[in-house]
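job 3f2a | input accepted
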Amino acid sequence: MDAIDPKFWIFLCFGQSNMAGQAPIEEQDLAVSERFLSMATTDGGDGRVLGTWRKAVPPLCRADANLGPADWFGRTLLEAVLDDVRIGIVSVAVEGCPITFFDKDRNAPLIVMEDRDWMNDILNQYGRDPYERLLSMAKIAARDGVIKGILLHQGETDAYDREWQETVRKIYCDLQQELQFDPTAVPLLVGEVVRTEYGGICGHANPTINDIANRYPNTFVVSSEDCLPCDDHLHFSGEGYRLLGRHYAQRYLEVTNP
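job 3f2a | predicted structure (258 res):
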């Protein structure tokens, strides 16, 4: 890719385990259009190379991740746009992380204190700075296409008060300032966690998640209605992720009418 293509739409995705994806990848998930690409935000044993585009065959986030909402967000969006539009995903997610791990002004001392081996393994893949990795990969992606939206799925850990909302807004504004995109043209889509009525053990985060759209411009909530969980009642099932991805795409189409 030698020049910016206005018909190559870039979406930044970040969050924790449900954004990384936790469901097994099935045969139906492997048929991927040549128009659906993913930026490698880590190196990986599956051949992905940091900072390069690859066909968006799951897993999108990291080689050790699984099926997540971004997979079927991209597929659904492709069905609704013109045939010459391509979709590119740039995804960075850290399982179990607080939202502050993506706050460039607060994350360094928090990450230094992290003592869980499994989380440190993930953080190491991102150079121990998830925000910086997302930003640097977004800058590379923006050489080829146009940033059209930001998708967040995070909240099971700490989406219970105004501080979470303020931090989410700050991260969006930090990205906007550093990437210089038009904030009126790049919506922030924030996904609900597994709902309480489906047994979601963190469903009490959803009121805070839903309220963020009332507080900030160009910020929209993505419903997890009918998105059922897997047995842990924290993560979505495979079909739950597929439906959640469709919900993200439908919400994007509703608010942008491209």
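job 3f2a | The chain has a mean pLDDT of 97.
job 3f2a | closed
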